[in-house]
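Human: I wish I could look at a protein chain and see how it folds. This is the protein in question:
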Amino acid sequence: MSEPRDATDTMSVDGSHLTEHDLAIPELSLVLLVGASGSGKSTFAAQAFAPFEVVSSDYCRGVVSNDPTDQNATADAFALLHEIVATRLRRGLLTVVDATNVQPSARKSLIALAKDHDVLPVAIVLDIDEKTCIERNKARNTSFGESVVHKQVTQLRQSLKGLGREGLRHIHILTTPEQVEQARIVRTRLFNDLHDDHGPFDVIGDVHGCLDELVEILSKMGYDIIYSDPADGIESGPTSGPPTPIDAIPPEGRRVIFLGDLIDRGPNVVGVLRLAMGMTKNGHALAVPGNHEAKLVRALGRGAKVQTTHGLVQTLADLEAEGEEFTIAVRQWCDGLISHYVLDDGRLVVAHAGLKEAYQGRASGRVRAFALYGDTTGESDEYGLPVRYPWANDYRGKAMVLYGHTPIPETQWVNNTLCLDTGCVFGGSLSALRYPEKELVQVKAARVYAEPVRPLRPPDPEREPDIIDATDVLGRRTVQTRWMGPLTIQAEQGAGAFEVMSRFAAEPRRLAYLPPTMSPVETSHLDNYLEHPLEAFAYFAKQGVGEVICEEKHMGSRAVAFVNRIPSRTDIVHTRTGRPFFAPGLEEQAITRLRAAVDKAGLWDEWDTDWVLLDAELLPWSLKAESLIRGQYLP
């Protein structure tokens, strides 16, 4: 598992816009000011950073002792400083530590703090000559003697050559007061920060060399496929042969996002790479790396030893056949992919294996590993594959997370996350989600190209048919609907519904339909009226409804009757909340009469059906009233 490289996971800097006085630092980072007392750290911090961004050791000393120069309070002061820094980093705020930081041990604890919060540690070193530092301390009437300053300067000089080995990702060294005064902080974004990119996007799950299915799904979404004739290298239409897709022009300014694992296992890895590389080169697509791309990069590196399993041996052979130039281009392209992206003002996050909220927009080896491989337990299942922790079950982040990596037979929203790897290479489907529309687009695989190590659709565990499993419904859930898209059910709503269903309602599989509840109109403005039809008509008119059908309201109880032509256990008469209306014996009598009525009316044959569902009123109302009064109102 490789550590992130500066070119991949640090920051985006256009060197042409930087001057010799500019100090580039990531927008989210831990900045260590390093310098002896009197080097000008506090003055520089006050000029270069916002007040609350700077955490000063002297200030913390004053907080815990009422004296910022009390060296006896140093231990408590730095404990407070670390707590403040940790809190700011956890909240995603750039933080500057104003302390001498000339000792490796002092820097080590802060660098570890940055690593714990997956932010980049940066050092701005004020290597000012000893004489200047001593004169400044005398002018400030500090209690520091010359020997203290001399010791700090010596410690700093001894540390300079080894700063890069301590884990500091960016180091800026200023050696004169003039350089400190002229220095300008330039805040740069991490490469994964695309907050200002609002799409729209078409996010495609794991392709695994299935070029035909990739071309089909792009065409289905309105992309214009561009082909190149390998015989002469001239772009041509799809009628020339043999056609090789090298780009796809998107409709209406859309772009594709590839979720990684473009390679291995499938029949045309080279074709998929040429198309994906062409689309990203021309600005028609973004791509994040999958674990298969990461493994390919290591396999193509010098001296790297990897197991050529899961289709990698064929990929390497195909690349060798294409020649060295293309192989080098593939390695550079895969090696340059960013671990994840945060898009659309933080509303969308894409990563191959998903990404929990604490890692989104961060940069570290741990973040990159999660994005590539997910959260594993360290154990292996019966198929020898890593056991993965179901991080999506605990996800509560605001961003929608789209990912792949683990093939599933069908997509399912889980806490605002969606896995789009539906096992195309294993004979499943290639899936894409249109964002922000949340429209799912799929194409079936032409055939099974590879047999999965773990079955794509594992056998359902045995369970009692009449027992409700609480884990199926509790917690925050997202239900995919046909007309309204994904609907989120909050945990508290699910818990309330589960309480009602488990105590009062019939078995859920018997409830084919729950009717909507009639909404009351606004309180009437007419004298002596609580409600009046005028308010109802005014509401419909305001919503643009031009025609309203009025029906006579009977003084009955809303009832739903599900009746089968042949008696079945699903026959039921229930309330609008799913509670059975009758005791079992009486219910059978009512169903029998309803079945006879439907039969006499000839509806079975007219509607060509074996069942009917009646949304009706049950008369008289008093049939329900007695049980309500005795069982609900009286207690």
